[in-house]
Amino acid sequence: MVRTPSYDQNGKKKGTWTPEEDRKLVAYVTKYGCWNWRQLPKYAGLARCGKSCRLRWMNYLRPNIKRGNYTKEEDDIILKLHAQLGNRWSTIAAQLPGRSDNEIKNHWHTSLKKRANYYASNSSDGESKSINQASGTRRKSVENQNAISPNNCMRSYEIVLESSQWSPKQSSSEEHQAFQEEAILMENSGSFWTEPFLVDTSFSSRTDYVVPSIDWELVCPPSPFIGHEFLSSFDLEDYNCQKLETEHPKK
DNA sequence: AACTAATCCAACCGCCACCCG
DNA sequence: CCGGGTGGCGGTTGGATTAGT
């Protein structure tokens, strides 16, 4: 399931993310937040485009992300919302905490679409018609943007960071340079990376995968600028509990 | 065991909306 | 209002894995 690593004409790396790159991205975002995705790779020491970094973070590296093992309830919610909204994956994902739009989209195409087609062919014309009418639309509504979603959580984070002492915008470039040097130092000493980062619990079964633990003092510094909704959105207790969970088998 | 087809999903691409000067 | 920069979204693809012959 990996794309062959390659480089585009700008020297930006494409293809599968390496554990090394994941470490760098996690380390940077947990320390400084995602203040600017396009500038971030430069300061984080990544030869990736900002889009790629954002995607990687949103779909796999951010806290509380869930992988695989869809429950019947989740499937039902997806089927129901898809019938109402069509291919508005981000809106659907907003109703399923821990699920990314990309993963829901994949899950839909690989398994739920068949179920939906089966239901449609065995239900009234009206119902199947509503599914067809809803699909393919892509419009942002006000309520959609105000919905509590992981995306909005991150947006909140950005807003918070912009106005806080933790904002990289207020940090000097020397500080970013220091970050990179610190990362290299920690990497060489091994101390920073020794504890597995288990947000994606699939890491736990991979011997080639060692990602850093999260220092929540850095992720959620005790700042008056950081709103309660943002802090609670990460559900730290749940996050820590994931360390005890065993890997759920893929496929 | 070897080969082929089907499945799955991580990642890319292009477009659009929003923001700001 | 306009244009550039950026983030976000949904469609699509590359290729590894799994199932079937």
What's a quick, concise take on this entry?
By secondary structure, the protein is an all-alpha fold. It has 13 helices and two strands, in the order ββααααααααααααα. Among the domains are: about 5-60, Orthogonal Bundle (Arc Repressor Mutant, subunit A), CATH 1.10.10; about 70-120, Arc Repressor Mutant, subunit A (Orthogonal Bundle), CATH 1.10.10.60.
Note down, in words, how this protein is organized.
This protein is mainly alpha-helical and 251 residues long. Among the domains are: 6-61, Arc Repressor Mutant, subunit A, CATH 1.10.10; 72-121, Arc Repressor Mutant, subunit A, CATH 1.10.10. Helix content is 53%, strand content 2%. The protein has helices at 19-32, 40-44, 50-61, 72-85, 89-94, 101-121, 125-134, 142-146, 150-162, 173-189, 216-219, 228-233, 236-241; strands at 6-7, 13-14. A two-stranded antiparallel ribbon has the order 1-2. The model is unreliable at 125-172 and 189-251 (pLDDT under 50). It binds a DNA duplex (21 and 21 nucleotides) through helix 3, helix 6 and helix 9.
Q: Got a strand count?
A: 2
Compressed to H and E, one letter per element, the order equals EEHHHHHHHHHHHHH
- The CATH topology name of the domain at 6-61 reads Arc Repressor Mutant, subunit A
Strand order of the largest sheet: 1-2
CATH superfamily descriptor of the domain at 6-61: Homeodomain-like
Specify the overall morphology.
Answer: elongated
**Average pLDDT level:** 62
- Beta content: under 5%
Main sheet attributes: strand count, strand direction, barrel closure:
2 strands, antiparallel
Integer-rounded radius of gyration:
20 Å
Distance between the termini: 13 Å
What's the CATH class of the domain at 6-61, please?
Mainly Alpha
